[in-house]
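Q: Fold this one first, please.
A: Sequence and structure below.
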Amino acid sequence: ETAWLLQLLIDDPRPVVLVGAMRPATALSADGPLNLLQAVQVALSPEARGYGALVVMDGQIHAAQWVTKLATQGVGAFASPGRGPLGWVDDVGVHLPTACGSRQVPFAELELPEQWPQVPIIFGCVEPEPLVLSACLNAGVAGLVFTGTGAGQLSAGEARVLEAWAGQRPLMLRANRCGSGPVHSHPEDERLGLLPAGSLNPQKARGLLLLASIAGLDCMALAALMTQCQLVS
């Protein structure tokens, strides 16, 4: 999530490399020192220029938009589902075989406030309690991310709550709880004030909504930005 926010905010050809460790320094075969060394190698590599924010863990180089943590244990806990890493680091050096291409930085000029807006994530399940969604709407949240079942669908109860809501709707994105795979537009989206999150997982969809809310974007402007930045197909 931190890498994704930096990707949306920092307009600089120099890479911003995030790194961590899955084992403490006191453990046998601690992974932190090697991860740190490889992160520095990537940051210094001319090949990494233009990619924006990167995550380097376990010898792999991941793009901020796709990387996520998939396991609580193990040095290979970070991955980019459906995409794979951009490259890798080994004894020879840094390998980034995929060209980075042009990069959109939609919030490079955004001034961040001291207090950020409220953007909850509502986790989808079979017959969820509508009171959670109702409470969020009544609280006047700036945005909502639905972690829908299947391909990001809302439940019938959640749809009824949105239909009955007479107030101003917050910015709302539909993501999925599957861990990978895109969420495409649905015929009901426009009527309910929803946008598909594309291939963004719920956490990264929330990061996008946080910045969009600070920037004062409405639903149409956010949809245009997501299309321009190729976040949805």
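Q: Good. Now the second chain.
A: Here it is, same layout.
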Amino acid sequence: MRDIKIAHVDDHRIFIDGLRFGLNEIKSDAYVFKSIGSFSNGEEFIQFLEKGGEIPDIVLMDVNMPFMDGITTTSIVNGKWPQIKVIGLSMHNNDQIILKMLQAGARGYLTKTASLSELQTAIKAVFENEYYSDQLTSKVMFNFLHQKNNSQTTSLNLTERETEFLKYCCSELSYKEIAEKMSLSPRTIDAVREVLFEKLGLMTRTGLVLYAIRNKIVEI
């Protein structure tokens, strides 16, 4: 079995303690959920990482916290430690908050009313496939794409390779699997992604997916 190292960033200690206990009780044939630490706000977590603390695979990130909120923290983590995958976990089901978390780089989002089995599914999906989308996040993305005051879509001249890559980004494939599909090396795929980030003014895969849908590169 393989360990999935999890960090909890949340200022509600009782909630974290209950969540850690619940995750420890989950039985899995493939994974062991290992908590590497709990942090009461984003600033505390960032300082831990900057001082050389153990790098988690997954971070369960609250939104509203003192000193540094979850959106800001997620953006910093995504920029400095892209190997860390953030899942938003909050009481908020507000579309704008969820969208901001996804745009900041979160790989999924759940409310704190989610069941342990649903959280387990999200953790495994993000760990294996990089992203998790449930009915809530799908609704938020759909509303964002179809809101009346959407700005006009921007059409740029993309290469055939870039267009193909964007289409695969809208699937559940990991970047490694996309590289295999396109018969390219992982390093080349990383280069294609970075060029698109620069060309489109984006920072996350979620942003690439939104761009692809809004510009009808893929249909929903």
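Q: Anything worth noting on the second one?
A: The first strand starts at residue 2 and ends at 9.
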